Amino acid sequence: MTEKKESAPAIQNALKVRARAKRKKPNFVRPESWRYDKFSISWRRPRGLDNKVRRKIKGWPPGPSTGYKGPKLVRGLHSSGFEDVLVHNVAELALVDPTTQVARIAHTVGKKKRAQIITEAKVLNLKIVNVKEVKEEAKEEGAEEEKKEEKTAEKKTPEKKAKKKEQKPKKKVVKGAKKQ
User: Fold this and answer.
1) Which one-letter DSSP state was computed for residue 75?
2) Cα 65 versus chain centre, distance
3) 116 close to 144: Cβ distance less than 8 angstroms
4) On the CB side of 157, how many CA atoms lie within 13 Å of its CA?
5) CA separation (Å) from 112 to 100, 108, 121?
6) Average pLDDT for 123-132
7) Is the Cβ–Cβ distance between 18 and 74 less than 8 Å?
8) Measured between alpha carbons, how far is 45 from 39 in angstroms, rounded to an integer?
9) Mean pLDDT on 92-119
10) How far apart are alpha carbons 110 and 126 in whole angstroms?
11) What is the DSSP letter of 87?
12) Which residues sit opposite 105 in a β-bridge?
């Protein structure tokens, strides 16, 4: 089979249509979940003979149907318009096509391997969807360390302790004295 390559404007337009449809789509909740605490709100398909949601009775919440699907052109694509590829290690980055795909690092990947994947992706000029900027993280870590150092320095100075004692004079409590 030959695949037809779609133009970028058509994909961008379809992505906008999908985003607009997603905003209108209701949150599908399990029928009767608002009535009984034993039911979670996560969707379950209604199968009963008399079920109002299955029969699409007026006044009952809607259930999922094909009418809520997005355009076929962008179905399964990331919101950036690229195909999303799950990556577990550095070797899998070689399989990602930078023109049509973006990488997503699996949540099970640790810090050390994640750093290796990010550096290799920069070399291969690949986009990674779920990565924060390393510079921002380093700045935040540095700022947090500075704040901790300042707090510890403040705690250690004897002048601070003396000021606190002066501010709060201790009240002497006399036992057996009556209040007037």
Assistant:
1) T
2) 26
3) no
4) 9
5) 27, 12, 14
6) 91
7) yes
8) 13
9) 94
10) 20
11) E
12) 87
Task: Give backbone dihedrals phi and psi of 45, rounded to 5 degrees, phi first.
Answer: -70, 125
Residue 173 burial (CB count, 10 A):
6
3-state class (DSSP) for residue 102:
strand
Residue-wise pLDDT for 62-90, tens only, equals: 999 998 998 999 988 998 889 999 999 99
Question: Rounded to an integer, what distance in angstroms lies between the CA atom of residue 36 and that of residue 113?
Answer: 46
Chain centroid to Cα 125, Å, comes to 24
The dihedral region occupied by 56, where left means phi > 0, alpha psi between -120 and 50, and beta the remainder, is left
- Using CA atoms, how far residue 1 sits from 73, 82, 101, in Å, is 17, 22, 21
In the chain, what are the helix, strand and coil shares in percent, each to the nearest 5? 40, 5, 50
Q: For the whole prediction, is pTM greater than 0.70?
A: no
Paired tokens of 142: 């540095």
Q: What are the residues whose beta carbons fall under 8 Å from the beta carbon of 121, sequence distance 6 or more?
A: 93, 103, 127, 128
d(CA 39, CA 71): 33
CB distance 29 to 43 below 8 Å: yes
Give the span between the Cα atoms of 8 and 132, in whole angstroms: 27
Mean pLDDT of the chain, nearest integer: 84
